[in-house]
Amino acid sequence: MSKFPKDFLWGGAVAANQCEGAYNEDGKGLSIQDIIPHGIKGPISEEPTSDNMKLVGIDFYHRYKEDIKLLAGMGFKVFRTSIAWSRIFPKGDEKEPNEKGLQFYDDLFDECRKYGMEPLVTISHYETPLHLAKEYDGWRSRKLIGFYENYVRTIFTRYKDKVKYWLTFNEINSVLHAPLMSGGIYTPKEELTINDLLQAAHHELVASALATKIGHEINPEFKIGCMVIAMPIYPLTPNPDDVIKMMESDHENLLFTDVHVRGKYPNYVKRILSKMGGEIKMEPGDEEILKNTVDFISFSYYMSICESAKPAAKGEGNLLGGVANPHLESSDWGWQIDPKGLRYVLNTMYDRYQKPLFIVENGLGAVDQLITDENGNKTVDDTYRINYLKKHIEQIAEAIEDGVELMGYTTWGCIDLVSASTAELKKRYGFIYVDRNDDGSGSLERYKKKSYDWYKKVIESNGEDLSI
């Protein structure tokens, strides 16, 4: 008997800004991604530039039927994607939506359902309309709650019979660390105070709770979740000072899920605010809106970190900071690989909230080499990716045996796409290789990697057969 529930949702995940391309077609407005050509740490450009790989992505906008068919060939039960806000409202603050944008997602969701694949849709995935960033400084402005409300009412009403599973914001807890990408905040990070960031986070939390309320009114069958970066934090040593440092770092992360699930700010926030010299300005009605709690908790999982009262060298690539763990290996991009950390975080999160969980991102970014096999077919021997996923799925099975209620698992970048953190295509995650390179060359042809047939077997056996 498989350890996984019979209705477990196996699948994969992408984001509109990293795969669609067609950045200025059919009435789409610019998003913040169109002026960030080099990822999180790179400079902003005033206009889209030809070195921005996301302007073309993998041309999913024109090739989605081919791609959905390939994903369906693995037996996907669910496909996570996002709606590009600026396809629906090009500037973000219009009253009326762009019909061509709405129609594209109608067609995409129809294609998914044709193969029996449930869409899992992220409403805002690191792609705030550029106009909202420049004109209002993104989520620093309370006005964005109203613009977001208009957007969610539009898409909830339009797709109420096509989409059941929704996520309000992607990795919402990242707004404190990547304010432009996560919160559309145009002011440079170094000029922002902790007050600015906490207030922007509050606006997003209110908007998220409001979306949950609206969604349940439009279709009571909707399942609406939050989405956070889940990253277990270990003390670097048994020194109690390191343990306290770990607890404090964990609180900064957990406050986002606490609000989403419990409907109010946790008591420890008062101490965080006191320590940081910050405050959160609440408007009348905010506390009542926050009581609209999510149906489930979804999260990304790539790594764990350590914390120390006396920090050593920081771990490369760790968006939320932290100290490198001397007991773990790292990926090519410095992300520490910790399969058992996934079991740990599943248990701790489920113990804390007693809500269904959903792993919506997990995967290995690597430099893949396209080869020709003995049958003359182009492919990638990505046994390293299979090993990574196998070890994580084994730990998911352990967590389910521990009693964790888990809805599903969608691997990140199930078809190669442009990296969010570095804006590279050479950092590949997919089961399907896309022939496009960082210099813009390539045919955009799709080729199945070795991991394609492996993941197909995993899904067919409902997680029972992980053999390589």
UniProtKB/TrEMBL annotation:
InterPro entries linked to this entry: GH, GH_1_N_CS, Glyco_hydro_1, Glyco_hydro_1_AS
Q: Which GO terms describe its molecular function?
A: beta-glucosidase activity
Q: Which domain of life is it from?
A: Bacteria
A Gene Ontology biological process term: carbohydrate catabolic process
Q: Does the keyword Hydrolase apply?
A: yes
Query: Hydrolase: present as a keyword of the record?
Result: yes
* Record: active site: E361
Name one cellular component (GO) term: cytosol
Which UniProt keyword terms apply here? Glycosidase, Hydrolase
Family in the record: Belongs to the glycosyl hydrolase 1 family.
Q: Which PANTHER family match?
A: 6-PHOSPHO-BETA-GLUCOSIDASE ASCB-RELATED, GLYCOSYL HYDROLASE
Any idea what this protein is called?
A: 6-phospho-beta-glucosidase
